[in-house]
Give the backbone structure.
Amino acid sequence: MSSTWGNNIKLSIFGGSHTGAIGVVLDNLPPNEKIDLDAVRVQMARRAPGKDKTATTRVEADEPEILSGLLDGVTTGAPLAAIIHNTNMRSKDYADLKVHPRPGHADYTAAVRYDGANDIRGGGHFSGRLTACLVFAGAVCRQILARRGITIGAHALQIGTAKDAPFDPVHISAEDLDALNTRFFSVTDPAAEAAMREEIENARLDADSLGGIIECAAVGVPAGIGSPMFGGIENVFSSILYGIPAVKGVEFGAGFSVAGMRGSENNDPFYYDENGCVKTETNHAGGILGGITTGMPILFRLAVKPTPSIGKAQKTVDLSTKQNDTLTITGRHDPCIVPRAIPVAEAAAAIALMDLMR
Amino acid sequence: MSSTWGNNIKLSIFGGSHTGAIGVVLDNLPPNEKIDLDAVRVQMARRAPGKDKTATTRVEADEPEILSGLLDGVTTGAPLAAIIHNTNMRSKDYADLKVHPRPGHADYTAAVRYDGANDIRGGGHFSGRLTACLVFAGAVCRQILARRGITIGAHALQIGTAKDAPFDPVHISAEDLDALNTRFFSVTDPAAEAAMREEIENARLDADSLGGIIECAAVGVPAGIGSPMFGGIENVFSSILYGIPAVKGVEFGAGFSVAGMRGSENNDPFYYDENGCVKTETNHAGGILGGITTGMPILFRLAVKPTPSIGKAQKTVDLSTKQNDTLTITGRHDPCIVPRAIPVAEAAAAIALMDLMR
Amino acid sequence: MSSTWGNNIKLSIFGGSHTGAIGVVLDNLPPNEKIDLDAVRVQMARRAPGKDKTATTRVEADEPEILSGLLDGVTTGAPLAAIIHNTNMRSKDYADLKVHPRPGHADYTAAVRYDGANDIRGGGHFSGRLTACLVFAGAVCRQILARRGITIGAHALQIGTAKDAPFDPVHISAEDLDALNTRFFSVTDPAAEAAMREEIENARLDADSLGGIIECAAVGVPAGIGSPMFGGIENVFSSILYGIPAVKGVEFGAGFSVAGMRGSENNDPFYYDENGCVKTETNHAGGILGGITTGMPILFRLAVKPTPSIGKAQKTVDLSTKQNDTLTITGRHDPCIVPRAIPVAEAAAAIALMDLMR
Amino acid sequence: MSSTWGNNIKLSIFGGSHTGAIGVVLDNLPPNEKIDLDAVRVQMARRAPGKDKTATTRVEADEPEILSGLLDGVTTGAPLAAIIHNTNMRSKDYADLKVHPRPGHADYTAAVRYDGANDIRGGGHFSGRLTACLVFAGAVCRQILARRGITIGAHALQIGTAKDAPFDPVHISAEDLDALNTRFFSVTDPAAEAAMREEIENARLDADSLGGIIECAAVGVPAGIGSPMFGGIENVFSSILYGIPAVKGVEFGAGFSVAGMRGSENNDPFYYDENGCVKTETNHAGGILGGITTGMPILFRLAVKPTPSIGKAQKTVDLSTKQNDTLTITGRHDPCIVPRAIPVAEAAAAIALMDLMR
């Protein structure tokens, strides 16, 4: 199935970039949960375009209209449904793409998958704009999780060659994450932001784009969440995280660096803390053993590919003439989507935890 | 859910390391598919323990007994069910672990998750032995996929500091993969195997263990398989790949290296090949755009953590006295599970493709 | 899960009677299917209220707004999403029901289920109005099924004591069904309609309501659709049919009358027809054996309870004072929902078949 | 999917009548639940064949072998898996059926569905023998439910023309049900059993078979279980109940008799009982409003068709010669499966409630 996700909750995302609206349904949320829509708007604004030169200049209001599931600001237990109207569309930008698939985009694969019937305008159902629905759903879930003591936050760990200071896998705190999780272009080291912005600006001036790595943490998750084999935190998280366009890798804890480690180094020693809680001295496991939470911070990283839409001329094919051809993409694009993808990663983590803890 | 997986097929895995048998059910396979059980045994033998010094000396016959779904060697359309009897168990090795959870293992998290009721013997349902069920199911699926022109193979890309030559993302062929996918300790460069074996032997002599990276490819997958958002190749593959114990990272195509790339470099230019097929000059996408196959080789890498069971004394807790303590694990263990995990990775890929193409 | 249904397609229904809109998402429809929205409107008009004295006088436009999945009248393969705006709401009619649950309604059970948070206005997510979403989705599916030779139609078999002539289980034809499946108050015998209308009018004048039985048939369904055990036609159909409010029974073929039959009478003899097709002389099986279609007409019946909203004073409780009390329901209600439920039954059958044949 | 069922638990059934064994997996049961295997055997014995002249003389031990999920008689939280060995098979009885499909059986539809590959021996995966797996799973679930105050029991309401006294929908008690739910040929009125046995014997002597109606109740289910639309008690129950071979109708509460009732008669008035609990004076709803339990007894009825295997000569086709033909079935058959189906109905109800309350 393409756009439905979840076991204990059901997330359904619909709409396209250039239709009347996009929308989202979140089924089986707990009732009687107060939802602050202003806090939801803060999250949606972090993802919204048009903020600065690092992002596309396309501006969207991104105001959700609630159709069910909320009454007087409290969840009713009915499916929480919202639509976000599309206010700013320039379909002419996309007219040519049915013939000339954009390298790195889904234009070609979607045409094959849907036998040419797919709506190409703005990427249709493949549009990054649909991540607004994830952010809405995640912003609702994170408020419910917060009342259970859980805090989620992320930052740009790397953009191009510029790197931010990584999270401390053992000591990262709710306070640390709350200092990040309402910001645009979240980083732990201000110097990193400057370096990242410079690399993005250089890419933009070259009519090119940059990729990066997002690091995300969830603290306050109790031990014992998740299940063995296919019900593990890693399985559930990655199954939704790969729903974020441009993600090409997901790793947990020490991730790929475990390849060079020995067991004696990678194993996290258990100990009792001053409160009689079992903790681990290190956290190479990223808070997960056997798919189940240890109670230590959950840590994961996402590899985000450079925006495929670039101004440079690119080699492609002409599907009408069946000849090789070149394409120069016009329209408004992000030289780097990493800053806008940070709240999306947090949102996906919140939805995944809501599903696992429901 | 822990041990049930799949949308178009349903995989159900049961049993534990120290019960009478482990077993697997694969529901909704196509009927009238001839299954060569000798070819299945070849795959199971690649995973089976007791092969050499790189693996545990525990020996298991791993002979599957078919209970339904096959008649005269042909699939009937009924659920394909098989059990694999456990012939070699030393439960005494595990008596102490309820009190002293092993660092890096699920002993502690399972105890919390299942309120102390979990079967600890041999890791119970968390045992790596259950991957024999994945290999059985994958060995069945890969025979069906082979008749549709699909070939899957993997190798040890890295163990400790020793590295094998990576697959050519564009030109990797069915012949290349068939040269690997029936071998134990599959590598593309014989010199790499020698270096890897030496590192493993050194770890073993140090009563320690090593992690690694497995690279897997699937060729012959037609363009247009998979769906946007949550039905993508990456979502489906990772949701089963993280069911392999010790996997801490999954990346596709260029994976985490996209972070340092520009769009002009990462985008794979389209062109028409001599047969009028659309191909890409490079394959940073790992054969996947928008979650949907391009027709180029599907490529992914798994980060496999070092076996947590090591002979060295380790810090842990005593859950009975609530004191910090130390643990020295006895019994038979793999200094490196990467060689045995290679056929498991291939099997998981085969099951995932069977689900996506059913 | 409450409002998400389906295996091969995913149906998601959201909204409430007194919110801005209700809506529906249908994920994984085949692409390139032409959808005639006027034909969809015909189906929605059959269910819409305000038609005559047999139904509530509440009038709704029920005009669907498509948000994705259709482009130039053709399915794109993206989730087909539509919202139907609520134009006519009298919330004051419902103010008292939080305290005095209506007998036969979900007011009390929803209050317990959702800890009092449920939206009571117009029944909230329990409103029969949400069946408009089923009719929309079914109207789309039946057009796709029609191109595969499948026709669905239903009629009022019984209302109160008035009975219509039942379908001929063997010879019911597409023509017979097409003569019914665009009508309001569909019956095979005009005399039956008059008798039914008279009973309904008598009930209305008594400030009371009537139940009935709907009989539905699907012809042209090829043999071999469905699966044993839990994937059978009966399992799948009933799992969606019980989603229609007021349905208290579902039977297939001879249904409950099999209780008094002998095997020699109930078994349907096989024979080859003039075209060399296997048929059955009788069709007590309702076109289903072992959960799988025989190729004969699929036949099922729904028991529809009398509308619980009646003008008569009824005994109920006062949940605030915890005293027994009486309730007299005001507002606009259907003396009999059977006529409006007929297109809903057809729609549910179309969605179920779409799921089974996708 | 054919043989996997459930949302909050996953039931997987495998094996066939004439393979080495049949088996069942129940995933996601709560841990630390004590399971009395003798009580499980009592339930399996109620379903087992060879009991008396009302059933087939084929004798099966039906002793389950537990492969995981139970340790020292307590659930571990791992998938509860059991196999039941097939000890008594006469395959020769079935050799002819590939050519001559039995009327009323799935021989023909399975051949079409599985392109002739289906295992016909003993009905293969369509065999009623697989209901032993349902009874095993249900016997485990009902023990867990019993600790939550829930009791389930059923009886033969009708066989042929002989009728038993129906349950009192309001006052049926746990004691009433416990007096029935360990018996073979459960009835409330001993005189009914005699009459039913006589009708069955007459059918048997005529080489014919009889159908019937099973009535089942569950008491002690708290109010508030179930969800609107597709997550209702009726949807979930019927989706598993139709997995019992020969079931052609399922109704809840007043069921099909609602057709002739008025709202003022069918609505169940609410009142506060002496303990301050909300109850209903009548229970036409069968304990379900809006798909959610009211706290009153859950009541449902199953229509069970006469065993299709009869000794009389029947008309059928010869699929090899494509000619019409006749068939006389030899082998051992039940003249009436209703008595043996009673524990299966109770088991399915227990599994459904376990899924809904997990």
